[in-house]
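ingest -> validate -> predict -> emit
validate: passed (alphabet ok, no gaps, 195 aa)
predict: started
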Amino acid sequence: MENLLHTIRKCIEQDRVYHRKFYDRYFGFAMKLAFRYVTDYDKAKDIVHDSFIKIFNNLQHFTNKTESSNVEYALMAWMKRIVINTGIDQMRRQRGTLAVTELTENIWDEHETSVSPDDHLLYKELLLELSSLPPTYRVVFNLHAVDGYTHKEIGEMLGITTGGTKSIYFKAKSLLQKRVGDKINNKPQYVKPWG
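emit:
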């Protein structure tokens, strides 16, 4: 805990060594968030880099509002909001036309070492299913189901009505349920080789 507070203080003082430590520590976290909103690696990296610029420029505001008992939890919640808003801003700039590309096998290997192989596989499968949704469906589904925003908050973020976000969420959820159901029903059954 004290180590994190020290790192944050050094980042506020513009110490480049600590900027790098902070960046390395939270890069994987930020990339996973960005990938829930875009599926192109370069665009996700752009979101992360833009987010870190905002984080470093506003870190002193974070420390003014935080109790020392849950610093990392509060920091990650604060960073999460910045990454999500940065992703939404990028979507707006591109007018919602986000490319859907295939994820590479080693996409997390560069910065993420603390997650089990099974968790990597499940997360990749979830990302691939979500990435197959139309961009607006993907964003609304992530904001509501994963990030916990209300439909009113999502509507304000995206500039659409609350009823519109509810409709989009319902359609996205139905599509995902159908696709997951189809995969389960089409999965080959295991047959014991000995009888």
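The chain is about 70% helix and 0% strand.
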